[in-house]
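A quick word before the example. In earlier lectures we treated sequence and structure as two separate objects. From today on, think of them as two lines of the same record. Here is Xylulose kinase written that way.
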Amino acid sequence: MANALGLDLGTSGLRALLMAEDGSVIASAAQSARATNPHPGWSEQDPGEWVTALEAAMAALAASHPEAMAQVAGIAVSGHMHGATLLDGAGEVLRPCILWNDTRSHAEAAELDAMPAFRAVSGNIVFPGFTAPKLKWVAKNEPEIFERTSKILLPAAYLNYYMTGEFVSDMSDAAGTAWLDCGGRDWSDALLEATGLSRAQMPALVEGCAVAGRLKPELADRWGIPRSAVVAGGAADNAASACGTGSLSEGEGFVSLGTSGVLLAARDGYHPEAASALHTFCHAVPGQWYQMGVMLSATDSLNWLSRITGLKPAALTGELGDLAAPGRERFLPYLAGERTPHNDAFIRGAFTGLGSDTGRADMTRAVLEGVAYGLRDSAEALRGAGAQLGPLLIIGGGSASAHWVEMIATVLDLPMMLPKAGEFGAALGAARLALVAATGGDPVALMTRPEIGRVIEPNDRLRDAFEAAYQKHRASYSAIRNIQ
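And the structure line, produced from the sequence above:
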């Protein structure tokens, strides 16, 4: 029996999932981690937090499930993308990791994005959150650190290094650096040189389901895992979620309705469309890619209204009743700027159409609609890139609102599939990658879709009304932008 461990490293902590060879979940353990914000727009984390969380989670599993841990054959990490973890020649961390949501390098990102080679080779806009502009910032502002930088690792690759002693990253995570030739699935020497770096400072690249190294004997002994256990390449968090939801091939994808909103579509080929601010990244399995549109404030928009009104989000949505046609009030969900399709870090949200008769329920409905229209923006960008969008899984905290899910289905004109309760996210995807690496199994056979509990269809009666409202939403961005 070959068990597998999936490690999901997020900015708020780490979750370890112990999975049996048949795909069933044996146990899990979670530990928190802290990020810091030393200046406005800065977001950093000590990589030691990741190691502490990993060791605590593994100790918990070793104590509670020693027999299952003794049968672990593979481990893989799903990590938050874009983080710049800088090591010296001795493998020691030089400074706190600069995280994905750090915006200090916006000027450097614009400078790199103005070089045609970056979009042409990487297939993506150079966003401020990506890794390459962070290193340009370090070179300008911390030159002594830049000069001492021997290796640049993403968070997941740092845990790979901790577990194996090898500098290895997977393709899906490397795709978010702006240094990867995403079509060729290799580092671009030209893009590295443009930021004063070389291939020697990068980790080796493997596919997410390939072997990256073997677990250090001392860790294997401490965790109660066989010394023969392998560590897989792993994956970026959204690629791992795609593996957990079985979104590997053209026509498969999901909506993640969390703090931010993601619409991800698996692609059978490489079809970059940088101008629309889509992310085009390598998948965690060989020969596949995925594209995703990202909006920065999805459930965060509802949470903002919750804080303003003093009511919990569920109480706000509970006031709405059955889905109805859009009202006069509209909300632009740009509380933290926007990614797809605007690539605008400075735009901010707005209500329009407010009147003396506007009530709390009207504002709630407008917020939900604004998020649905933001996801539609991503759907239009994906369709423009040739993506085939079929029925989509919908996951994340916002999917608990049937009203919101029906609205999104209607705005996107696509059925939304709600999985039954259970595991289907990034930790499961990482465990599946680990199992493939350990056993040589077929990723397609193993990474199946979860059992569907309910399918919510578009509301045919309201489709035209929402289509008209969406067209007004599209026209609103430029008008609001011009007065901010």
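Notice the following. The chain has two domains: 3-239, 248-423+451-484. We will return to this example when we discuss secondary structure assignment.
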